[in-house]
Specification:
Layout (H helix, E strand, L loop, with lengths): L1 H20 L7 H8 L3 H12 L3 H19 L5 H7 L5 H12 L3 H6 L3 H7 L1 H10 L9 E6 L2 E9 L5 H15 L8 E5 L12 E7 L12 E5 L2 E9 L6 H15 L9 E6 L10 E7 L2
Antiparallel strand pairs: 1-6, 2-4, 2-5, 3-4, 3-7, 6-8, 7-8
């Protein structure tokens, strides 16, 4: 029974991977069902039963999520090009679908995203992915690394985590203006609070970019700091890097007590190595660092 269930889930995962890699292609029901080697006559019901949403809606949400990231965080694509990449033949059809899901037109979202309804609309999509994409970590996944000191420029996010998208948008725009590209200057997130504090107003995270050059603030509130030198337990996460809480829980709950190590007085942080939508979502990469004494 367990083997059969494992094989069934593996076939479903092949479907999600294929969709991630081929969002620009024709993802009709017959093509997608062939990937899993399921009958096309039953496949849509199997997907709905497994994920809680239809194949069509899953694909639409995947495309709209990628499109919304491109609208909010990049300025090098027109709305028309983004619409075509999302599988729409005309910008007005894309605009209708986008407004229906997120409550804003694509142009309005690009200028001033309303992140709370965006998160709510993508909830079913993220829940569907998490059902089969839960990572199980082991001791072999954790390495201990000597980390050099890294000077960083910091943009702070303080307050409700549902508004983090607006801070990320400002951070990306600022680092572009400063010429601090992710390929040449590493990207870090430093968590200074719980992921879900008792009050959302107490949420605290630093968005950081590695640089030892003089900082042009360009009107933003940018401070200078550093990722300190020292030993760290490092856990590499591939796939769902939007939510690194399961990886952090593994380090604190399982790895740290059994390792004999003690945590150092610096917050847990991550370095982001590959970003969605520059890579398919399941290929995004982050490394989580737990500083050690």
């Amino acid at each position: 029974m367990k083997t059969a269930l494992h094989n069934y889930r593996a076939r479903m995962l092949r479907v999600l991977d294929h969709i991630d890699r081929h969002l620009d292609s024709d993802l009709d029901l017959e093509t997608v069902s062939d990937i899993a080697a399921f009958s096309k006559f039953h496949f849509h019901r199997q997907v709905t039963a497994t994920f809680g949403l239809s194949v069509h809606r899953y694909i639409q949400l995947a495309r709209l999520k990628r499109a919304s990231h491109r609208l909010a965080y990049t300025g090098d694509q027109s709305v028309t090009d983004i619409a075509m990449d999302a599988g729409y033949d005309a910008p007005d059809a894309f605009a209708r679908a986008f407004r229906q899901r997120f409550g804003q037109s694509p142009s309005s979202f690009r200028k001033s995203p309303d992140w709370e309804p965006w998160l709510a609309a993508l909830g079913p999509f993220d829940n569907a992915r998490s059902k089969l994409m839960q990572k199980t970590f082991t001791f072999d996944d954790v390495t201990i690394r000597e980390v050099p000191v890294t000077p960083v420029a910091i943009m702070e996010h303080r307050g409700d985590p549902t508004t983090i998208g607006a801070t990320i948008q400002r951070f990306i725009a600022w680092r572009k203006a400063a010429g601090l590209h992710p390929k040449t200057n590493p990207t870090f997130n430093v968590w200074r609070s719980e992921r879900r504090p008792a009050s959302p107003a107490d949420y605290s995270m630093d968005l950081c970019v590695g640089t030892d050059q003089p900082i042009e603030t360009n009107g933003e509130e940018i401070t200078v700091g550093e990722i300190p030198r020292g030993r760290s337990a490092v856990l590499r996460v591939v796939g769902n890097t939007d939510n690194l809480e399961p990886a952090a829980l593994y380090l604190y709950r399982d790895w740290l007590p059994a390792s004999g190590e003690e945590a150092r007085d610096f917050p847990i942080y991550c370095q982001r190595l590959a970003f969605f939508p520059e890579v398919p979502e399941h290929e995004a990469v982050a490394e989580l660092f737990l500083p050690l004494k």
